[in-house]
Every structure is written in C-alpha cells, then in structure tokens.
C-alpha cells in the first residue's frame, strides 16, 4: 500500500451517540491511513453538534476535493444524513430517535450512497455500528459488502449473542441466581452480567435495541470488535466456530503525534487548560474522575464523591458536565479551586489527561471506551459501574486484568477515600500500576504497525480491494446499483 487509492471508498455510518461515534471514527481513520477514501456519516443533528464543538477546522459537506482530510496514505471526509428527528421534541429522546432512525434511516442512507456514485466515488464497503442494524439491510439491497463494528468487549458480544439465541441458561424471574458459563469467559454471577439482560432491567426498549443487531448480523461479511487479541484471546478463539469476530482495537488515539489524531467528534469543547494544571502537580498524585457522556450521578452521589475526594488529601481533576453541575454541594467548586487542590471541568481531553505523568488513578464508570483508554495509558482504575456492559467491564478490570479496585454502590465519602488510598498507596497499588504498565504495552503493540490489530485492518482493506477488482464491482455496475 504505497499510495492513496481513492477508487476504494469506505462509508462508515454511526448511530448518533458519543460512545458510538468515537470508536467508529477512530476505526475510519485507521482504514483511511491504509490508502482508501473514507466517508464518515451520522445524523445531521449530531454532525452539527460535533462541528460546533470542534476546536480545529472541521470541513464542511461538499462534493469538492476541498473537503478531503489527508489521513496517512488516504483521505477522510464527512457527510451527514437527515433522519427526520425534530431536535425540539422533548419526549422520550432515545425512543423517538430509534423510531425515526428505523423509519427514515434506510432511505436516507440509500440516498447518501447514490450521491456518492453520482459524485464519482461509488461505495466499496459499508461499515456500521450497533443500534442501526438496518444499515446491513441497505448494504445487502445495494449489493455492497458490509461490516459491523461491535463497540463493546468481545466477552459482552458473546454474552448478548448467547442470550439472544438462547444457547445457555441466563437468570430469569424463576431462577434469579443462575450463573452463566460461556466458552472462553470466566463464570459470571448474575451481578456481573450486563444489566440489560437481567429480569430487573427497567430499560426493556434499550435491550430490544441491543439485541436487534443480532437479527440480521449474518448479512455482515466482517464483524469487528473494539478489542485486541492479547486482551481477550480465549473469547475470540471460542467464538471462531460460532460467529468469527475480528479484533481491531483498542480504538484509542494514543497521542497528538499527527494531524489525524486531532480529528475528534466530541459533543463538548474540552477544557484543554486542565493539561497545564496537571503539569503543575507531582508525578503519580492526581485522581482523575469521569463518568462519561451519559451516566448521571444523583445529588447524594455527587456530594459523597465531592467530600470523599476532598478528604483523600490528593489533588483531583473531576469532569462535571454542565447538566449535572447544579448537583454539586453549594460552594464546593469555588472552595477546592481556591485551595489549589482540584480542578473541575465540563469536558476533558481524556486521552491526554490519562497520558499525564501526574495522574495516579482513574475513577471511572467503566464504559468500554474509557476502559480501553485507561488500559492504553497504563493507569489503574477505581471502578464504579452503573449499568449495562459497565458491570462486566468492571469485573474484568479488577478481577481478571488486576488493574483496579471496586467502589461499591452506593458511594460514600468513606468508601471513596478508602478506594483512592488503595489505588495509590501501598504494595498492592504498586503491583496494580505494574500490571497496568504491561497492559499498556500490549495495547500499543496491537495497534502499532504490523501489530495484531493493525494486520487485521490491513487485511480488511485488502479484502475489499480484491472485491472491487473482482466480480463484486462489475456485478454491481451491471445491476445499475453503483
């Protein structure tokens, strides 16, 4: 792959959620770096929000070459589609979005694909992520080979897959204590499983949306996972005979070493000045706290975290989104910032923060993106999962990888203080940091040139190139599709 090949065109289509867009965009950049042209798409509303939050020159939609962003040997461009959601609708946002996407998404995506052909860049391969399984149907209808990026762990994929197909017993109303044993995965107690498949799950529509992707997943020629072989080798191996999954992660940006690493899709502008504050702190001293873009802690939890962090005696950097800032104890933010012992920001450049030598540990909700970012940075964690896949992620971080301590719910200031001490001080904390450093090296080796995940991406691009050069492309032309 010595030069760009813009006749090879990948279309990446994402569900409009922060935790969905980020890994898919990182995958898109890695594919583009191998030489092809890549178009990244999501809804118009989400696209306008990431444009507004972008701190770099974000390109505008156009059919000219000026919208092409050089990425490695290839190019990346953005083009969004209208799913028909009214942004002023104040009803059930997720349900409304899912309904509109299912009703309007397929035709909008088909139109977008036809626009690419009309502009002289027919789509060679379609790549989507969870919550928009209908994208596979569109690809199949247009005779375009499709791929799916699973944005959680391979273990969680296996759990949902076996649950959907009823291949093993899971907890039910009649037997709440059923333990689950799956090939390649340690035994899972009910309280270690993704909460969306438990009888107590109150979010039935969300469970339906998660499982919907398994109805037509056979239409995907490739199923990728945002993970790496060294992390989940036994799970990947166990699934080979059931449904082969290809590891291409961790999908993290490990530094601002190139222009493409600055291409972000954050909904909020990050407070980059916190990096200057981190530079003033002692090595291995700062507690970093973030529960991602969706989790909302209660006022009681916010208060317990606030006083637990303050009582720990450690400096801390806490991401407190604007939608929850009012839940902080009155006067708390001004008090700790006046003392110079802490900084609170609305959003952070997390990967840069975790790379700082001053960060000692990461209090996290254990979303899979944050989990991989912590591993790639070699930072021990304090796990405080809330729901969904965060629960098994916490188990793997603490019990299997050995790089974290568990903060049990409900959080209290005493528990927070105790966990901070356990993660930073003492012989076990030293061992956790040593294990975290080893996982850091394994993660970075996987995505380095000729690493296990890098080779899988290279092969993916080559497979699509062979399809384009062979009968697939000519057949599509004969059918009037491209």
From TrEMBL:
Origin superkingdom: Eukaryota
Listed SUPFAM superfamilies: UDP-Glycosyltransferase/glycogen phosphorylase
Residue stretches in coiled coil: none
InterPro entries named in the record: UDP_glucos_trans, UDP_glycos_trans_CS
Enzyme class: transferase
Keyword field contains Glycosyltransferase: yes
Molecular function terms from GO: quercetin 3-O-glucosyltransferase activity; quercetin 7-O-glucosyltransferase activity
Chain segments annotated as transmembrane: none
E.C. numbers: 2.4.1.-
Keywords: Glycosyltransferase, Transferase
Database matches in PANTHER family: GLUCOSYL/GLUCURONOSYL TRANSFERASES (PTHR11926), UDP-GLYCOSYLTRANSFERASE 84A1 (PTHR11926:SF986)
Family: Belongs to the UDP-glycosyltransferase family.
The name this protein goes by in its record: Glycosyltransferase
Taxonomic source organism: Dendrobium nobile (Orchid)
